[in-house]
Amino acid sequence: MKQIQVGLIGFGTVGSGLAQTLLEQKERLQKKTGAEIILTQVADTSGRPLPEQFSEVILTRKATDIFTNPDIDIVVELIGGMEPARTFLLEAIKHGKHVVTANKALLSVHGKEIFEAAVAHNVEVGFEASVGGGIPVIKSLKEGLVANRIESIIGIMNGTANYILTKMTDEQLAFDDVLKDAQEKGFAEADPTYDVEGIDTAHKLAILMTIAYGKHVHLDDVSTEGISSIKPIDIEFAKEFGCRIKLLAISHQHEDNVEARVHPTMVPNSHMLANINGAYNAIQFKGDTVGNVLLYGPGAGMMPTGSAVAADVVDIGRNILCNSVNRVPALSYLPENIGLPSITPMSDLSGPYYFRITALDKPGVLSTISGIFSKHNISIQSVFQKSRHEFDPVAIVIRSHIASEEAVQRCIEEIDSLDVCPEKTVKIRILLDDE
Ligand code: HSE
């Protein structure tokens, strides 16, 4: 029987998920591909032996042993981070190996270099597991939605942040307590600030935008705000407004430019994304031909992510067997048709906002604040103030009608410069029902 041989760099959570999947699904994959897909070699620096069931797999400490092993067809990088992951992928490509990675941080910064190197060496790059954990989101976008102009991408793309917000909402817990819990459950990044400050979500949005629009979107193109300043009071107000707070990745394609933003958002309960809870992810694409498509599933974890990596391995294996390498271009668009994006400035956006202003409870403060809103042409829909004994200073919550982001930024700057406002104002965008 034909064989496809895999070399794996990094035997951590996802690496063991892949190894286990290839072992458990061996016969099924043979029936589906007509070949044996074998994990031949693992490079891991931990010094730990591989579990007993992988006794036939060669273990090395040096990734070079994998690139130079002539039997290996596909090199899977699952160590994460920038270096040495970048060098390993480029070296593997130079040695003519197809590569698979789940490394969203790397692809959102060095993707252009890696994809161009792969084209130059006529090898494939699989990266399904970089976005949405076990959800086949990249394949759906590249293949299932190929006949669409993608008009928007809106999604919950970080399991840890969604888990935290869900627990804060449903169990009235504070941010810090839930973060610890999420770390113990094993889906937080090595540096959990990536999860809670929206950076991990921005990595993933940059990757999806690159495929959706045929433009190399870089992490720096994505405006990013996280959820670390969200307090239980914000969650309570969201409930009163008939919303749930979610960390959303949002991109709309306009005539000449594209939006690229990640921020906490009040999502109306009637919206599908308001009902995605726990560590689950969901990504909604709007295509001009198909309309709205929502993909939902486990966004993190050993076996879901292992399933996505295995899917890339099988896809590439099938292409090797059928002599059709790069039948589907890595980024869906042919390399010569991929350009650079023009990003919509955040100041050009508008929408309804929630503001939580921390102020001293003194005569005239509310009228000063409302005067600043009026000066910046922001129309107030409603105002709430929590009583003095609960908050000292008090929290003044304002919900606005549709306002421009530029005006909102200037308004907050002016409010935060007041002596009577000792803490920074928190703003949360409110999603429109039809977004
Ligand atoms: N830390 C990520 C998350 C893992 O929580 O979603 C999957 O990319």
What does this structure look like?
With 435 residues, this protein is of the alpha/beta class. It folds into three domains: 2-136 and 302-337, NAD(P)-binding Rossmann-like Domain (Rossmann fold, 3-Layer(aba) Sandwich); 144-298, Dihydrodipicolinate Reductase, domain 2 (2-Layer Sandwich); 346-430, ACT domain (Alpha-Beta Plaits, 2-Layer Sandwich). Helix content is 36%, strand content 23%. It has helices spanning 13-24, 26-33, 63-67, 85-94, 104-120, 137-144, 159-171, 175-185, 193-196, 199-213, 232-240, 302-321, 365-375, 405-416, and strands spanning 2-9, 35-43, 58-60, 74-77, 98-101, 125-126, 150-156, 223-224, 243-252, 261-268, 280-287, 291-298, 350-351, 353-359, 380-385, 394-400, 403-404, 426-430. The longest helix has 20 residues, at 302-321. Residues 133, 158-160, 187-189, 195, 200, 299-300 line the site of L-homoserine (HSE).
The overall pLDDT average reads 95
The class by helix and strand makeup works out as: alpha/beta
Mind describing the biggest β-sheet?
10 strands, mixed
CATH superfamily of the largest domain: NAD(P)-binding Rossmann-like Domain
- Could you tell me the strand content as a percent range? 15-25%
Tell me the count of domains: 3
Query: Which consecutive residue ranges, at least 5 long each, have pLDDT under 50?
Result: none
Helix percent band: 25-40%
Tally of DSSP β-strands: 18
Shape label: elongated
Q: Cofactors and ligands present? A: L-homoserine
Distance between the termini: 51 Å
Task: Write down the CATH class of the largest domain.
Answer: Alpha Beta
* CATH architecture field of the largest domain: 3-Layer(aba) Sandwich
Radius of gyration: 24 Å
Number of helices: 14
CATH fold node name of the largest domain: Rossmann fold
